[in-house]
From TrEMBL:
Annotated GH26 domain residues: 193-486
Identification of the protein by name: Endoglucanase
Record InterPro entries: GH (IPR017853), GH26_dom (IPR022790), Glyco_hydro_26 (IPR000805)
TM annotation in the entry: none
Keywords: Glycosidase, Hydrolase
Domain of life of the source: Bacteria
One BP annotation, GO: substituted mannan metabolic process
Organism, as annotated: Paenibacillus elgii
Active-site residues annotated for this sequence: E313, E426
């Protein structure tokens, strides 16, 4: 009995000594200093970490095998009212206490600057290799319009976050801020011959192909056919939206194929009509394994080409797969994308072209929500989609925008960033706040200035306000005048 007791005491002493050793190691952890002259700051970080500046102007990453530290600089310029709004708005995800366990949430002064410190953790995820479920972030307020954000995530509990934050200091900026060049390379297609030929005809030839979202098609084609008769034009592309609430739309896709249409099948990982705060975590924990395996099998059985657009507009807070809802961590989005891609590959799917598609306007418009942070990688994306709407002026703060005002800056960015083909996956103009007929005229004139755009799909429907009143009137056949103007211009594309 005494031997056992002595053994227990020795274990306790050993544990205590080990704790002291670890604490001393943490204190004496070798540190290096990173200086960013264009953005005007410096901070200390663990010396063994590598510095990753591959996306200048978006973030700086310091990382090793277990931990990564991302540093962002935001200058709001009217996107939000002030730094306090940035902090409050950007951290609303912690209201989801089921998935996020907050261990620190406080504001203090560091080096004369106000700093908001937040620490939280979540469950480890089954489908994420080397998952990092421990987080810390610090919003360091330079002034009401300028904020630095340090975002840390790790495979183990974070103990040096305050040390890193306390080392941060603002210095006078020097030099021009860096610009981001090409960030992708077009990878070879992994498709069957029929799909490769569809890709060639759509994206590797001159000219622009047109498509339409008509709500009843391709399930029922009579309304679409009637509209096309008025237009004297047949659309090549259709949009079909599906979610986790529905299975694979085999009958709809057969209707489209029999009518010689290519469908942009848009799968959004949400359940329509429900709140979905846990959906990304649930997917990565295996809850939907059976769903995605069956979906892949059904796509394989369909056999014909599809544009497969997964989780579009992910940089918008209106979808549950945005980082806004998920730990401010866009990599959870890319992990879901890769998981679904791998599932499709495991089932032999070779008839889809993967379409990656942010919205032109990020909401929140913060650097940690930059669209490029959601890019899953060259091997997972075949086509890059652009989406920008002239929303009209129904809601306060919205403005009437021409096609050129929307797409000139977007096209300039995307044609520089991406080697993959570009298409407008959905767009339209409202009639509230301006002349829709004139907008259509100018659109057909100006779209010719963007030769890398290979397809454009008009979203012919209406957005309704919370009282079910028409808010954004996007329908192509809203008036005979709009129909006639489309008819005239589309003749050029026959």
């Amino acid at each position: 009995m005494k031997l056992k007791k002595t053994h227990v005491i020795s274990g306790v002493v050993f544990a205590a000594l080990l704790g002291v050793f670890i604490a001393q190691s943490m204190v004496s952890e070798p540190m290096a200093t990173y200086t960013d002259l264009p953005y005007g700051y410096e901070l200390s970080y663990p010396k063994q970490m590598k510095v990753d500046r591959s996306w200048p102007g978006v973030r700086t990453r310091l990382c090793d095998e277990t931990t990564q530290i991302d540093v962002y600089y935001d200058n709001f310029n009217g996107t939000v009212s002030d730094a306090a709004t940035y902090i409050g708005y950007g951290n609303r995800f912690i209201e989801n206490t089921k998935d996020h366990r907050v261990t620190m949430n406080e504001t203090k002064t560091v080096g004369g600057l106000s700093v908001h410190l937040l620490k939280w953790e979540r469950d480890k995820l089954k489908h994420v290799e080397n998952d990092k479920p421990y987080y810390a972030s610090a919003e360091i307020v330079k002034n009401d319009k300028e904020v630095y954000t340090i975002a840390i995530k790790s495979a183990r509990p974070i103990t040096n976050d305050e040390k890193i934050v306390n080392s941060f200091r603002v210095i006078p900026p020097q030099g021009d801020k860096p610009e981001l060049g090409t960030v992708t390379k077009k990878a070879p297609l992994k498709t069957n011959l029929e799909t490769a030929e569809e890709y060639r005809k759509l994206f590797m030839t001159d000219g622009l192909k047109w498509g339409i979202y008509e709500r009843s098609a391709p399930g029922k084609m009579n309304l679409l056919h009637a509209l096309e008769q008025k237009l004297d034009y047949k659309f090549d592309l259709l949009i079909l939206y599906k979610s986790l609430s529905t299975g694979f739309p085999a009958d709809d896709l057969k209707n489209a194929y029999d009518d010689n249409r290519l469908v942009q099948l848009t799968l959004q990982t949400m359940r329509f009509g429900e709140q979905n705060p846990s959906v990304m975590y649930d997917i990565l924990n295996g809850k939907y394994d059976e769903f995605f395996t069956k979906y892949a099998q059904d796509i394989k059985a369909f056999g014909h080409p599809l544009l497969f657009r997964l989780n579009n507009e992910m940089n918008g807070d209106w979808v549950p797969y945005s980082a806004y809802h998920n730990s401010k961590d866009p990599e959870l989005y890319t992990e879901v994308w890769k998981y679904i891609y791998r599932t499709f590959q495991s089932q032999g799917v070779d008839n889809v072209l993967w379409v990656w598609n942010p919205n032109h306007s990020s909401k929140p418009e913060f650097q940690w929500n930059h669209p490029l942070l959601y890019y899953p990688g060259d091997d997972y994306v075949d086509v890059v989609g652009l989406t920008a709407y002239n929303t009209g002026t129904y809601y306060p703060g919205e403005q009437w925008s021409t096609f050129d005002e929307l797409y000139a800056p977007l096209y300039a960015q995307y044609s520089k960033w991406f080697e993959q083909p570009l298409m407008i996956t959905e767009f339209a103009s409202s009639s509230v706040g301006g002349d829709k007929v004139q907008w259509v005229d100018h659109m057909f004139r100006d779209i010719k200035k963007y030769p890398k755009l290979k397809a454009a799909i008009w979203w012919s429907h209406t957005d309704f306000d919370p009282d079910d009143r028409p808010a954004r009137k996007y329908k192509l056949d809203e008036t005979p005048e709009v129909v006639e103007r489309f008819r005239q211009h589309l003749q050029e594309y026959k």
